[in-house]
Structures are given as C-alpha cells and as structure tokens.
Amino acid sequence: MDPALPPLPAFQEAGFADSPLVGRIVGADGLALQPAQLLARCAAASICMLGEQHDHPDHHALQTWVIQALAARGQLAAVALEMVDAGWLVDGRADAAPANTQPPQVSLTPSGGGSAGRPWGQSEPSVRRALHWNDDGWPWSLYAGPVMAAVRAGIPVVGVNLPDAEMMRAYRDPKWDASVPEAVRRSVIDDVRDSHCGLLPAAQLPAMARIQFARDATMAAGCVALLQPGRTVVLLTGSFHADKTVGIALHLAAADPGAHGGRSPGVFSLLLQGVDADTAPRPPSGFDAVWFTPSTPPVDHCAELRKALAGKVNPP
Predict the structure, then answer these.
(1) pLDDT value at position 307?
(2) Residues of the chain with pLDDT under 50
(3) What is the per-residue pLDDT across 239-257, written as a single tens digit (0 to 9) for each?
C-alpha cells in the first residue's frame, strides 16, 4: 500500500485568493484532477517538469509537496534544477569543497538514494556550498523547501542549467538557430523582445534566443543523464522552459538520440499558475495540467529592467 500523501500546503499569497480556480488542478482535457491523480501522472513520466513563477512562494511549496510524495513512494530518481549550473550536485557524498571551481562528474547510483530509506544529513549551508548556490539570482529562502525535501529524503539534487561562462559562446553560435523549428524560433524571439519590454535592439534578439535554446538543450541533456527505469526526474524550472511547444521538451531527442528507440523520453509538464482576472480555466497547449494558486502582488518588471540596463551598452 502506498504511504499516505503529505498534507497539502496552505497558500501564503492573497491575490485573487477567493477565485474558484485557486487550488484546482485541471488536465489538458479540461477535467479536474485530484492531487493523487496528478502525482500518478507525474510519476508515470520519465521527466516531470514543474513550471514555476520563480518568485512565487506557493509554487515552491507545491514543488516541495510533489517531491516529498514521490520520494516517499520510491518513485523519484532525482531533482534537477534550472537554478544551478550543470554538474553541481548533492548526492549524499562528501560536500563539494568551497574552493572547488569545477563541478564533479555526475554519476548517480541506480538505488536512488533515500527512496531506498537512506536520508542524508547535510545542513542547508553545506547543501548551498555543494550546489554553488547563487542567492542573488535565486533567493535560497524560496528554494530551501523543495531542495531540502529532496536532500532529506536522500534524493540526488543536480544542477542542469547552462553555465554563465558558456552563454556568450551560445549567443554567437548560429547552430542554435536551427535547433528548433523556424516557427518556434520566431516565437521565442518574440518572447525575448516582450520579456525585455522592447528595450533590446531588434538585431540582438535572435542571438538572445540562441541562449534560450542552449539553456533548454543543456537542461534536456541534464535530465536525460539522470533517467532511471520506473522512476521520474523532477525538474524545477520556469514556466516558459516547461512549455512543451517551445522549451526543453523539444531538445530531448537530441540530448540522447541513441536511447529510447530513437524516441524522446516521456514528459509530463505541470504549470503552476497564479490566478488573475484573465486566467483561463484550463492549461495552455504546452502543458499537461495546471495547478492554480493565488497570485503574487504585481511588480513592474519593465521598470526594474530599465534600471538594470541604465548605463549599459549592448547588454549580453
């Protein structure tokens, strides 16, 4: 008999908290799902992507719940992180020394660590050191819950993002232009323009999109390297990366073309979405399900970006 599910977290945010959508889980067919049904669909996939709003505490609380529930059932192979450069990991061995500048080789045992009942005793500071955590970009206070839930269950936690040092190389490499269908490339260029509030020179946008494709390809390869039969790799990433029509899923076949009979590994993508006045009652086309939460207070990201770009010429 499967262990009981952990209690669902209470939402912290207040935006549109009285909406009838808040707390609901809806599949791609528009039908409501119970948490146990969602968990079963996540566990049945080789990779389960949890597409978050990075600064949303309730999204990280739900990620923690998913990780705890899958680990308790022995169904979790690893937790992969967009927030950490590829290769840095916590897998129950001695912590990476603070002086290390190169990530260790990722070599995980098929046992899956703590899913076999062997929790690890790392402290939060030691985990942050081992992962070379960047608190400026990714506040640890938001990510401690899901990361430490995995560590305490003995589940490997592995960085899969493109290292900063490689981004300029991707920016200049035209091979990435052909890594996705042309319609996707144009869609991503439009998103880069919109997400930067139209502040970037138009000539710079295609090269910025290359970085997006390189990041998605790196995360795809990182997840493929963690696959285990009968268990799922949970990936914590932003919702755009988790969108199966434009993001990581498009790069999975190229990540390991000789595996899975030439097919991409099975992917389940969950959108974690804060509700607003215009929220549709079902997931967008790039997701298999959506879990609705209250929304965070509105932030003028364009004003913040203008401030960050002030005085810069040709930002990378």
Answers:
(1) 86
(2) 93-100, 107, 109-117, 262, 315-316
(3) 999 999 999 999 998 887 6
How many domains does one find in the chain? 1
- ∠ Cα 203 204 207 (to 5°): 120
Report if residue 15 sits inside a domain. no
Three-state SS for the chain is CCCCCCCCCCCCCCECCCCCCCCCEEECCCCEECHHHHHHHHHHCCEEEEEECCCCHHHHHHHHHHHHHHHHCCCEEEEEEEEEECCCEECCCCCCCCCCCCCCCCCCCCCCHHHHCCCCCCCHHHHHHHHCCCCCCCCHHHHHHHHHHHHHCCCCEEEEECCHHHHHHHHHCHHHHHCCCHHHHHHHHHHHHHHCCCCCCHHHHHHHHHHHHHHHHHHHHHHHCCCCCCCEEEEEEEHHHHCCCCCHHHHHHHHCCCCHHHCCCCEEEEEEEECCCCCCCCCCCCCCEEEEECECCCCCHHHHHHHHHCCCCCCC
Which pTM value belongs to this model? 0.90
- 206: domain CATH number is 3.40.50.11550
**pLDDT of the residue at 123:** 92
- Residue at 73 is within a domain: yes
- Domain of 54? 25-101+116-309
64-107 pLDDT, tens digit each: 999 999 999 999 999 999 999 998 999 864 443 333 455 655 54
Q: Is 149 part of a structural domain of the chain?
A: yes
Q: Answer whether residue 168 is part of any domain.
A: yes
